[in-house]
Amino acid sequence: MARPESLERSAWRDLKLSYVARVEKIEADARGQVKVRVRWYYRPEESIGGRRQFHGSKEVFLSDHYDEQSVDTIDGKCVVHTFKSYTKLDAVGNEV
């Protein structure tokens, strides 16, 4: 998971939801600063159609929005399932 650098770290911690991105590439620039190229996921309420009744509370959509961030913006790791793999899970946690 990554957060945009434009958000102050303290402000980001106040948010209940993390930004989710897929790391596409990791590389260091000429000055040795490590950067990641990410592809962002969006929640239904962030899309034009908005959240609908059939959307899961944890549902995200892979976008065509790419970005380059400092590696320091990565706060953790998560697993994003395709719909097909999600439906094959034995146990799915609460949709809270």
Give a count of the beta strands, DSSP E runs of length 2 or more: 3
Order of helices and strands: HEEEH
- Largest sheet geometry: 3 strands, antiparallel
Gross geometry:
elongated
Largest sheet: spatial strand order: 1-2-3
> How many DSSP helices?
2
- The share of residues in extended strands comes to 25-35%
Label the CATH architecture: Roll
User: What's the average pLDDT?
Assistant: 82
Provide the domain count. 1
Structural class, please?
Answer: alpha+beta
Question: What's the CATH C level?
Answer: Mainly Beta
Might you state the CATH topology name? SH3 type barrels
Domain BAH: 1-96
Protein name: BAH domain-containing protein
GO molecular function, one term: chromatin binding
Organism: Stephania yunnanensis
